[in-house]
Amino acid sequence: MKLLSHAEFIAAAGRAADLLPEGPAEIAFAGRSNVGKSSAINALLGRRRLARISKTPGRTQTINFYALGEQARLVDLPGYGYARVARSLRSQWETLVAAYLRSRSTLAGVVVIMDARHPLTPLDLQLIEWLGDTRLLVLLSKADKLSRTEQAATLARVSAALGAPVRLFSSVTRQGVDESRVLLEQWLETGRAEIKGPR
Ligand code: GDP
Question: What fold, for 3-141+155-178?
């Protein structure tokens, strides 16, 4: 089933207490501000404008929940690491995102988006460390800005560093979109089976 084709906004949570109660399996998206996360979500959903493409990086500090039909959810985590974000906002981000990641038994996996030109920043690595053994897909966004040779070298370097699936991705050329969709649909299928299955 094509779970990733229709998504509707359900709720935004600015504090841990406002997180939506657990329901169907969820896929969360995370990445530095301005990395191309909203564009990637929209490309994966085949939509022009589901997640708002931010004009002011770093300002959205809410976790946004979207329904993918009744079977699954997409969760857009606030972007991190924008230089001008005050320290207080940064710790607010950490508290909120950590509360979500630590508590969510319905989390089928997390898509971490890194800029293909500057992957593996300290904050990217910190997030991945927090994820522990949560299922992970890394998308190297804006891959269209690299030459073929640079793409291959970056893919090899990031794959070797993380030991997780890594894909070159571009919401402009749609490189990596279809392959990533297939993988995420599989996550949701297995995530749903696990939630429904005996505990
Ligand atoms: P977010 O803050 O991570 O959600 O990033 P956005 O999706 O809002 O994108 C930030 C900027 O990067 C915008 O100017 C986009 O047009 C641009 N952008 C996003 N994805 C791509 C891509 O795949 N290729 C190129 N060249 N630019 C992109």
Answer: Rossmann fold (3.40.50)
